[in-house]
Amino acid sequence: MKGIVFAGNSKIEYLDFPDPTPGHDEVVLEIKASGMCGSDLKFYRAPRGEGLKALGYNDAPPVVAGHEPCGVVVAVGASVNPKRAYAGQRAMVHHYRGCGACPHCSTGWMQLCDEGVKEIYGLTGHGAHAKYMKCPASTIVELPEELTFETGAAIACGTGTAWGALNRLDLKGDQTIAIFGQGPVGLSSTQLAHAMGARVIALDVSEERLARAQELGADAVINPLKDDPVQAIRQLTHGLGAHASIDASSSASARKQAVQCVRTWGKACYVGEGGSVSIDVSPDMLRRQVTIIGSWTFSTVGQGDCARFVADRGVDVDALFTHRWGFEDAVQAYQLFDKQTSGKGVFLF
């Protein structure tokens, strides 16, 4: 089979790989939808191999890209419990592999494995930008019949990550949340928070993305290039500030504002990867009893809970996608995605 590979320096290659066959505890999916995630752009842009070296992987062979997999199980290893995975099952994949036995792996948090992550699909192991993908049965998460494969691909990373952050915040329907950055994860946070009944204030420097946020449920929008975000949020909350905030932008200024904009006893959750932030500890945090939380993706259990919530509440996750691409369109798709001005993209097979 052919797979899409990040060749370095913003280049895409189509390389040949053997069709996968499952080991005793593995399954093979026929991929139906494979999402594009903003976290991949640093690997797409970097010189070949340099992005992985930053993670401690040297001389890694080329792998199929894509870590938002969704499809149908077509082959099952001999030792796989049929209650876990079976042929014909509609499924997403949790895109990390750990040791499988430590307390984190056994509760579905493979990315927190005590022995370190063994594989990250789409980066160090073959991902979903190909017709087939092999993975351990323990990483399979069933896709409810009510949901499309596209929705499953979104939940497999971006939407699932938003769900994880909102649950870390313990968001309630009578609260107001400020969400900094309206890329795919931020938009997912806006959409899910709205479905939970919360009042949503969306922030971004792109008017196009702010318009998308309103379409997906934002009650108010703020462009930090035009208005002071902290003051604007306080004006919208009777001077108190938001109950909670999420930074999905990785911007140092947005991270600081995400802490400053919450009210006394408020919570700020950092989701965006990389970079740093500097805060004045006493006035910004300590003397207002503010809690700062880090949230890294989700567990297999959380992924399943997110899918069930989306299905039961009728959340239109497919509305996140602005571009749907064929397998042959990868060069054009990533060139557009690299501009970070559009919404979410997905490859359909």
UniProtKB/TrEMBL annotation:
PANTHER family xref list: L-THREONINE 3-DEHYDROGENASE
Enoyl reductase (ER) domain segment(s): 8-347
UniProt-listed Gene3D superfamilies: Medium-chain alcohol dehydrogenases, catalytic domain (3.90.180.10), NAD(P)-binding Rossmann-like Domain (3.40.50.720)
Listed CDD domains: THR_DH_like (cd08239)
Entry protein name: Zinc-binding dehydrogenase
Pfam families assigned: ADH_N (PF08240), ADH_zinc_N (PF00107)
Keywords, comma-separated and alphabetical: Metal-binding, Oxidoreductase, Zinc
Single annotated GO MF: zinc ion binding
Domain of life: Bacteria
Cofactor(s) needed by this chain: Zn(2+)
Family to which the UniProt record says this protein belongs: Belongs to the zinc-containing alcohol dehydrogenase family.
